[in-house]
Design goal:
This protein is an alpha+beta fold and 224 residues long. It has 2 domains: 170 residues, Vaccinia Virus protein VP39 (Rossmann fold, 3-Layer(aba) Sandwich), CATH 3.40.50.150; 37 residues. It contains 6 helices and 9 strands; from the N terminus they run αβαβββββββααβαα. It is elongated and about 90 Å long.
């Protein structure tokens, strides 16, 4: 569980205000209610303009019950004013960023996390490392070898893909989800269930017969 409450999707205004204060290489992260991903009207127009201006770098949808103040699923927006390829020195390391202009990385963390304090969820170190590794690999040179789209987890979408979906930033519109119903062999599964149910009913009949026999031996025969 986390203390920070999610931001309402009505707060696009202060996001734009914060963006205006970022440097040309500035990066910011905001937590918004999921409605901001596809809202229409003024919010939709602002979202479209942010996408067209190539400020949105990544959208990370989070699981429910992550915050103490609400149980809803919310979204982390990572906004970056410079998605061009460049070399940055950080903590003595040279980081070679590739050109990500016209791309947005979608990540779905809703199946991640572990139970915390019975009713909450928190991320494990492994969860955080996986997401960080995925994000950084996608950002940097060599992404064609180190990053791949992963069903039910992540997808790198192009501007044209996002435009074709009405500038919606709902991750499930881009990340592939497996239809497990199509992979079920119903005939085989029904035979398995038939065998399991037959065994359960047989044992139930045997138990009932044993109980009836006990009562009969005690002189209290039960007639059904």
């Amino acid at each position: 569980g986390y203390d920070t409450p999610p931001t309402s999707n009505a707060n696009y205004g202060w996001i734009l205000n914060m963006l205006s204060k970022l440097s040309d290489n500035g990066i910011a992260g905001f937590i918004l209610a999921n409605g901001a991903l596809s809202a229409d009207g003024i919010e939709g127009a602002i979202r479209r303009k942010m996408i067209e201006n190539d400020i949105v770098e990544s959208i990370v949808i989070l699981p429910r019950n992550l915050f103490y103040s609400t149980d809803i699923s919310v979204t982390l927006w990572i906004l970056n004013k410079n998605k061009k390829g460049r070399v940055v020195s950080r903590n003595g390391e040279e980081i070679h960023y590739r050109d990500r202009e016209g791309e947005i990385l979608f990540i779905d963390m809703r199946q991640m996390g572990e139970p915390f304090e019975k009713k909450y969820v928190r991320f494990t170190d492994e969860d955080i490392q996986k997401v960080a590794r995925t994000y950084h690999n996608w950002q940097r040179e060599g992404a064609s070898e180190s990053y791949t789209n992963e069903p039910e987890f992540c997808y790198s979408a192009s501007f044209d893909e996002v435009k074709a979906k009405g500038f919606s930033l709902v991750p499930s519109k881009y990340i592939e989800f497996v239809n497990r119903d199509e992979t079920i062999d119903y005939d085989t599964r029904m035979k398995e269930l038939h065998g399991e149910l037959t065994d359960i009913l047989r044992k139930e009949a045997e138990s009932r017969a044993a109980v009836l026999e006990v009562f009969k031996s005690l002189g209290y025969e039960i007639k059904i």
